[in-house]
């Protein structure tokens, strides 16, 4: 399971970097979004990947740190999702304003030859 999880993070991060290097602003925004997803999955994975264990503690059991999940990465990812959504909305508004003012959506302000 860890291998599949690591490959998913790598694919998201690689796709995000590739899109960030593209010349159009919408592709850059999508690349930033994919990078934020990769970072969120990475942070979430830092809290241990366990199957069949209770989210925090089993009711009626003695507190055993090995039997509990760490709630801190879960809270960090939840906060990052909310902040990422707001940042993406702001980027889209800036994209639309920039396109309206310049007439193009290229990052460098020039149309490509292709």
From TrEMBL:
Key words, A-Z: Cell membrane, Membrane, Transmembrane, Transmembrane helix
Compartment annotation: Cell membrane
GO CC, alphabetical: plasma membrane
Record has Secreted as a keyword: no
Keyword NAD among UniProt keywords: no
Taxonomy, superkingdom: Bacteria
Record field: transmembrane: 6-21, 28-51, 71-97
InterPro entries attached to this UniProt entry: CPA3_antiporter_subunitC, NUOK/Mnh_C1-like
Family membership: Belongs to the CPA3 antiporters (TC 2.A.63) subunit C family.
NCBIfam families, alphabetized: PRK09094.1
Record-given protein name: Na+/H+ antiporter subunit C
Species classification: Bacteria, Pseudomonadati, Pseudomonadota, Betaproteobacteria, Burkholderiales
């Amino acid at each position: 399971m860890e291998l599949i999880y690591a490959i998913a993070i790598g694919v998201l991060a690689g796709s995000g970097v590739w899109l960030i290097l593209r010349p159009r602003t919408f592709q850059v925004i999508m690349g930033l979004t994919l990078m934020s997803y990769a970072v969120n999955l990475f942070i979430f994975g830092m809290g241990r990947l366990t199957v069949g264990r209770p989210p925090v503690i089993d009711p009626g059991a003695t507190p055993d740190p090995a039997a509990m999940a760490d709630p801190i990465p879960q809270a960090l990812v939840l906060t990052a999702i909310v902040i990422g959504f707001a940042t993406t909305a702001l980027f889209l508004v800036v994209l639309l304003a920039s396109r309206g003012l310049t007439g193009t959506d290229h990052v460098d302000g020039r149309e490509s030859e292709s």
